[in-house]
Every structure is written in structure tokens, then in C-alpha cells.
Amino acid sequence: MTGGGNTFSFESFKHGLKDFGYLEGKNILIEFRSAEGNSKRIPDQVAELVRLKVDVLVTTSPAVRVAKQATKTIPIVMVTQEDPVASGLVSSLARPGEI
Questions:
Q1: Average pLDDT value over all residues in the chain
Q2: Helix (H), strand (E) at residue 49
Q3: How far is Cα 5 from Cα 22, in angstroms, rounded to an integer?
């Protein structure tokens, strides 16, 4: 899922997965959502993905904070240009899940 507004490339992401042997529709299912520049859509989209019980959320800023509030059990992979420690997204790079 992408919050919009930065340089995350969904096609590059899928290509990277393919490099590691993950093929969409074969051994991985991707539930893609895009706010299309409308940040008001992000909470509903994140909530939907949490309800679907996805294995991992891959997201960009500003959706990272919404995802952190929505789940404590689903791992979140964030694509951000922010310093995740300085911005308070994680407490440390060594243990990002511990806030």
C-alpha cells in the first residue's frame, strides 16, 4: 500500500520480489491499495488490510503512523525518506518494533 507523495514504485517492488522468487499469483498474493494523493483515504484502507489479516504491511509515509496505530501484530515495512528514529516512527534501528 502506498500513502502517495513519495518515490515508492510498486512495479519496482514487484520486480524485487521476483528477484527473490516471489511471483504474484503463484506464491504470493499482493493486496494493493493507493490513497491516490488523498490522505483521508488511508485509515480506511489500512483498516481493510488489517481486517484481511495480511502477513505484512508495506507502506510509505504518511501511512506508516496510521498502520502503527491500526495493528500491533502485523509487521510493517516502511518506505520513507524520513529518519525513522528522529521522527519517532521507531525507537531504534536495532529494535524498530519496540517503542
A1: 86
A2: helix 42-51
A3: 27
User: Could you give the count of Cα atoms lying within 13 Å of 20 in the half-sphere of its Cβ?
Assistant: 8
- Give CA–CA dist 99/91, Å, rounded: 5
If we measure between CA atoms, which residue out of 18, 19, 45 comes closest to residue 32? 45
Give percent of the chain with pLDDT exceeding 70: 90
- Residue-wise pLDDT for 18-60, tens only, equals 999 999 999 999 999 988 889 999 999 999 999 999 999 998 8
CB neighbour class for 54 (10 Å; exposed up to 12, middle 13-18, buried from 19): middle
Contacts of 59 (CB under 8 A, 6+ apart): 1, 2, 3, 46, 67, 76, 77, 78, 79
Counting every residue, how long is the chain? 99
Residue in the structure block whose three cell numbers are 516502511: 78
Give the number of other CB atoms < 10 A from CB of residue 48: 14
